[in-house]
Amino acid sequence: MKRSIAICFICMAIMLLTGCWDRRETNDLAIITGVALDKTEEGLIELTVEIHSPGGSGNRSEMGGDSGGGKNKTILQTGKGVSLADAMEDLDEKLSRQMLWSHAEAIVISKAFAETGIRDELDFFVRHPEPRLRSYIFISDGKAKEIIALRPSLERSSSEVLIKLAESEVLMKVTLFDLMEMLKGESGTSVLPMVAKSPREQGKAVLETVSYINRSAVLKQGKMIGSINDQLTRGVLWFRNEIKESIVTVKPEEADGYISMDILKGRTVLIPEMDGHRLKMTVKIEMIDDVIQNQTDWNLKELEKLQMLEAALAQKIEQRLTDTLEIVQKELKADIVGFADEFRRKYPEKWKKEKADWEERFATVEVTFDIEAEVLRTGRGSAPQ
C-alpha cells in the first residue's frame, strides 16, 4: 500500500517536471521595440522595425548610423509585401533571429498610408498573438520610417521617445485598444496623435533630433480625412473628458496683463436631448485650477477679482470648445467628440433612426455650454496679489 502511494506521488511529481520545451533565449530573438508602416510607389506595404541591440555594439541602421546615443542601441530592418503579414514574412527572411513583437510599444503609420485606410493592417495587430493592445499608435507627417530612424540624445531609442510623449498626456494618447474601440463606436470616427521631426540643430547630424506631437489626425472608417492643431486637440480632450494636464493663460477684462493657471482637475459631462427632429447637447464642465503666474497688478485675494478671473477662464475654455466644433462639426463632419455614443445611451430606440445619416445630423446638433471654473490657490507672488 505504502509503495503504491509512493509511486503515485512520484508520477505526480514527474508530470510537473515539464521542462522548458518552448523556451526562447534572448540571444536567439530579434526584439522589436518600434514599428513603422509606409506605402511604396508601387502600392506595397513597407514594414520597418526598430530592433533592440543589447550591449550597444554600435550596429548601423539601414538608414545610416546607429539609432541611439546611449549604451543600448537599435538597428532598423525593412520588409515589403502586399499585406502586413506578407511584409513580415519578407522581413523574417532577412533576419537571422526570430522576431519578438511583444515589446513593440510604438507603432507609427505614415499620413499617406493612413489616407488609404488602416483597418486591414490593424486586423493583423489584433489577430497576431504577440503585439500588445496597449501599444501606442501615431500618424507621421512624413515617412513613418524616418521617425523611428531618429537618434535621440536623451532616450535610448526613437520608440522610447514616442512612448514618453504619449505618457505625458499633454495631447492625445491612443493605444491600439483605444483605436479599435473608436472604430467600433457609433460614429465610426477616430483621432490619433501626429508626430513630426523637430528642426535639426546646427552642427547636428541629419538623424540627431527627436520627434514631437504637433497635431491630431482625424479618421473616418479607418481613413484619414484631415487634421487639427494642438489647441483644437485640447478642445477634443475636453469634450471627451480626457483632459489631464493643461496650462491656460487668460487676459481678463480690465486687466493690464496675463494670468496663467494650471488645470488640476477637469470633468466633462455630455447631456444629450432629442426635441422632435432637433438634436441638442449640453456640455457641462467643472474645473479646479491653481494660479501659477500673475503678470497683472490684481490682488487675487479680493473676491471680486477672483470671480472675474474664474469667469475669464470659463470663457476661454468655452471659446476653445466653440472653435473645435466649428472645425470638426462643420468642416470635417467627424464626430470625434463622442456625441453619437451619448445619444445612443440615452435614446437607444430613436438612435436607430438617426444613425444612418449621422454624419449630416451631427453637423446640426445645437450645443450649449455650462462651464464652472474654481481657482483653488492663488499662490504667493512678488507683488501684493
From TrEMBL:
Spore germination GerAC-like C-terminal domain span: 215-379
Entry-linked Gene3D superfamilies: Nutrient germinant receptor protein C, domain 3
Domain Spore germination protein N-terminal: 22-196
Alphabetized InterPro entries for the sequence: GerAC_N, Spore_GerAC-like, Spore_GerAC-like_C, Spore_GerAC_C_sf
UniProt superkingdom: Bacteria
The entry's keywords: Germination, Lipoprotein, Membrane, Palmitate, Signal
Region (Disordered): 51-72
Membrane topology: Lipid-anchor
Keyword Iron: no
Any one Gene Ontology cellular component term annotated for this protein: membrane
Keyword Nucleotide-binding among record annotations: no
Protein's GO biological process: spore germination
Compartments where found: Membrane
PANTHER family in the record: SPORE GERMINATION PROTEIN B3
NCBIfam families per UniProt: spore_ger_x_C (TIGR02887)
Record-stated family: Belongs to the GerABKC lipoprotein family.
Name the record gives this protein: Ger(X)C family spore germination protein
